[in-house]
């Protein structure tokens, strides 16, 4: 008979298996790409006399097998924490039960990783010429959930193309402005996916070139750099530089560097760019201006004076030789016309008699002597004009261009007034066959030039003009304080003007 004091035990069913039963794997229901998740592998078994451990097969994180023994449960557990990527979607995760190195049992689950669409862009052709067509295709590598019927958009250099909403982008008759970086965007329930950028390069020949000068104007002896600017794709591989319309030999780079600039480099520069598609054209030229010192002017004056002196010496010796030859011819004529104790002289002028004589030297020498005679007359005008302009430019450049033009016009006017009539007398004498009677008067105008030139050069100096005005003022008004004379150098140093006072 059973009483309340009796003790009862529940029946226990013992199952004996030939192979160990598999572990249980717990996977979160919602797995997002790039977010931490924890997988749990659990085995309802623990025996300290028979050690086991659990191992994961997806990746290689640290694994831990923790045997747990309680009154209610006896189990061994291992956890795997990691960040799944979109590439882990659909992969299998396996948890194995091992004793030493022997696999006793295992269990496998498949990952369902939610992620945005993974995209790639294909371009055909990779290089496109200006005016051709190009096609870009946006391919979906992976998407969970799928992208069917969702929005597709194209972006160029950060700006969305409003008219393009399909997976294929076709550009017709491309221009250079269509070059840039493109990518596509596709969205699903997780969010928008973006492809990597691809660069579209439109090839074209160099555009008309421009020349930039850094930093004008240049001072004599300094270094200066000129840059040829011409848009092209691919970049220009060869450049041709021009100085005053003539090619600069040996310069084929984008930059033209002049290490020691001088007056020889003054002028207009242009360039042409060239790549494998063709050669460009010249658009904008640049003028290089050089500021030079008075020492440079002195050297140029000395060179000009040396040239004129050489021409004058050559003309002098030519005239001397010609006179000697004429004298010998006249003496020979007198001897031939003498008879017995008497001789006669023909009724001709000496000039006419000598003019009928033959030229003893080769004919080219005659042209040389004539050139030597007239070259100084015509060269002096240009030399004086260049000297006047150069002298003022060296002192006041780049200011006062009107004054320079006035000085140049005055010099040319004096040249034409002083030398024009005398040169005209040669033309009149050649046409009439005799020297005009007024030649001696116009010759006086030529000699007057030697008196006018010094005044022109002196009065081109503002300092001389100021001193001359002060001199006239003292002569007309007597001794007064000189308030106009200012030393620019002392004014720059001390910031004050100095006045000269008349002696008491």
Automatic annotation (TrEMBL):
It comes from the Eukaryota. Pfam families: C2-set_2, Ig_2, Ig_3. Keywords: Cell adhesion, Cell membrane, Disulfide bond, Glycoprotein, Immunoglobulin domain, Lectin, Lipid-binding, Membrane, Phosphoprotein, Receptor, Repeat, Signal, Transmembrane, Transmembrane helix. It is a single-pass type I membrane protein; Multi-pass membrane protein. PROSITE patterns: G_PROTEIN_RECEP_F1_2 (PS50262), IG_LIKE (PS50835). One of its GO terms (cellular component) is external side of plasma membrane. Residues 23-112, 117-201, 206-289 form the Ig-like domain. One of its GO terms (biological process) is cell adhesion. The keyword Disulfide bond applies. G-protein coupled receptor for medium and long chain saturated and unsaturated fatty acids that plays an important role in glucose homeostasis. Fatty acid binding increases glucose-stimulated insulin secretion, and may also enhance the secretion of glucagon-like peptide 1 (GLP-1). May also play a role in bone homeostasis; receptor signaling activates pathways that inhibit osteoclast differentiation. Ligand binding leads to a conformation change that triggers signaling via G-proteins that activate phospholipase C, leading to an increase of the intracellular calcium concentration. This is B-cell receptor CD22. It comes from Cricetulus griseus (Chinese hamster). The lineage of its organism: Eukaryota, Metazoa, Chordata, Craniata, Vertebrata.
